[in-house]
Amino acid sequence: MTRPESAGAAPALLVTGTTSDAGKSVVAAGLCRWLARQGVKVAPFKAQNMSLNSVVTPDGAEIGRAQAMQAAASGIEPSAAMNPILLKPGGDRSSQVVVRGRPTGEVDAVSYRAHKDRLRDIAVESLAELRSRYEVVICEGAGSPAEINLRSGDIANMGLARAAGLPVIVVGDIDRGGVFAGLHGTLALLEPADQALVAGFVINKFRGAPELLEPGLRQLRELTGRPVHGVLPWLDGLWLDVEDSLALSADRGPMPAPVGEQALRVAVVRLPRISNFTDIDALTVEPGVDVRFVTTPHELEDADLAILPGSRATVADLAWLRDRGLDSVLAHRAANGRPVLGICGGYQMLAREIRDDVESAAGVVRGLGLLPARVAFATEKTLARPEGTCYGERVAAYEIHHGQTEVVWAGSEAVPFLDGCRAGAVWGTTWHGALENDAFRRAFLADVAGRAGRRFVAAGGTDFAAERAARLDALGDMVEEHMDTDAIWRLLESGAPSELPVVAPAGTAGPAETG
Fold this sequence. Notes:
By secondary structure, the chain is α/β, with parallel strands linked by helices.
């Protein structure tokens, strides 16, 4: 087994999936971690990402958090080239387009097609840039490569693979059921030139008896001429920077068991267009903290701390909040000194007034009025990595927002909190990632517990960065122990095998041909 040569364009591999959330991000991160531990200088790449969970890189670019997580798995800093195109949905039909880390405007599904050729060139150039700087690049696809209605404009799956000559593996989630149909059907729907690059499969989230799976693996190879390069086990508790709120419906892993009445109960409002809900991940590893995502007044009333998270559509989500009666619960909490925290879009909702001529074009909208602040949306997006001190502890964070919040200090009893303020038991800040700072998180939770009347003391010693690193190591272990790593090396060194059989779609005449 030899390491890939670094002369010229570095080897690269594309990880696709039968569906969204099949495990592409996890497998790509695991491959990055495994390679980095072999001493390989590796980088992640995703040509086009649709996600409301993003992060600001050291070079001031906005990219998907999944690629930042994969960069951490690789032991490197994230950069704009790792996710050159980011789509941030603002509704059912429109998205903000972020190119090389900078927003370029809003498009709908139809008008986006006109930009595809230009964006494909940007994606290919970005991948070439990474392949010139690193020894290996692990690419992640988007959704499924078999979305035949979108294939002509594809820039993230087989369109990228064809343009850059990448070998491809397809990941299927066996926990969903129908994994063999998904893998075979994905391949069969691809045109022959695309099929020629699909070198094998990976089955994810297996937790059954291996001997029961073996006949299916054998038949899949007989039907497709391609091997299964790994059967990955179910791993609890990964919660690794997921891309969208669909993952909130799934198990995000075991939370520390609350201890009787001392448990601090945290309720996070699950907004329809929730963004950067990864802000909450650090709370889930704190012993004695019970975190839940909620949508009803009753669930919010019962919590010791209510959190309004980020939102891609502040005004629309504020209207949803009012429609469900959650605004009354928040007002009642504030009036009775029961803790509320607003982060970014959630902070904006807590203000007295929101002027939005940019995101929703709604003009002036009445906020919840729980903090003495006014918000005005700016055309230019703020992307920053601020640092400061709070509760006597250092805090490093990042900012992503159009809304500019001004605190009205005169005549109020508000006090500074990070870049925002606190009034009574209501806190607001635009800083994402603040809770990942261990000492600050514990001090904040201790303050919350005191105001909530809980006999709770935040435990010392919880290291969120170490927890995240341990989970990335678990992914590297999973790849090393359950994937055919020799086959992965061969794909990186030599590309997809030649003369792979073409699998005919159902209903076509004749046997599969070799092409």
